[in-house]
Amino acid sequence: MAAVLAMAEARQGCSFGCHPTVVNISVESCAGPEVVRSTICAGQCYHEDPVYISDYDWPEQKTCNGDWSFEVKHTPGCPVGISYPVARNCKCAACNEDNMFCGRFLGDVSSCLSF
Q1: Domain boundaries, position 39
Q2: Distance, CA of 8 to CA of 23 (rounded, Å)
Q3: Which of 1, 42, 67, 81 could bridge to 72 as Cys pair (CB 3.0-4.6 Å)?
Q4: What is the mean pLDDT of the chain?
């Protein structure tokens, strides 16, 4: 059984999933440069390209996105707070052309992207 699990893990190239990731965002405040710690959505969503590519019948593409809200950080000595986005949850969902690029990626991805 252990050999079967080891072989399954060896074959597993990329892992797919969309998850919250903590990042530091540099912002300008009245006190000077500040670093805000926030959460973004990061990861890869499974997509299988069709054998025949047509501009008229393209399969639905899933992207890593989620529900967002804004938080405010108050800096001592500044009358105005710094507003920044925070991801509340993340999921693979249909690409929304209103707020992101949903076109074809024409480059090559030689290996899994890491986040």
Answers
A1: 17-44+61-94
A2: 32
A3: 81
A4: 76
pTM for the model: 0.64
Q: In the numeric block, which tokens belong to residue 92?
A: 């693979």
DSSP-derived 3-state class of residue 55? coil
Would you say residue 6 has pLDDT above 50?
no
In tens, the pLDDT along 79-114 reads 888 888 999 999 998 888 887 777 766 666 555 555
Total domain count, the chain: 1
Q: Which residues of 33-67 are buried (b: 16+ CB within 10 A; e: fewer)?
A: ebebebbbbbbbbeeeeeeeeeeeeeeeebbbbbe
Cβ–Cβ under 8 Å, residues 26 and 35: yes
DSSP letter at 7 equals H
Whether residue 52 lies inside any domain: the answer is no
For residue 72, what pLDDT band results from cuts at 50, 70 and 90? very high
Full DSSP string of 17-45: EEEEEEEEEEEEETTEEEEEEEEEEEEE-
The pair of structure tokens assigned to 47 is 């997509």
30 within domain boundaries: yes
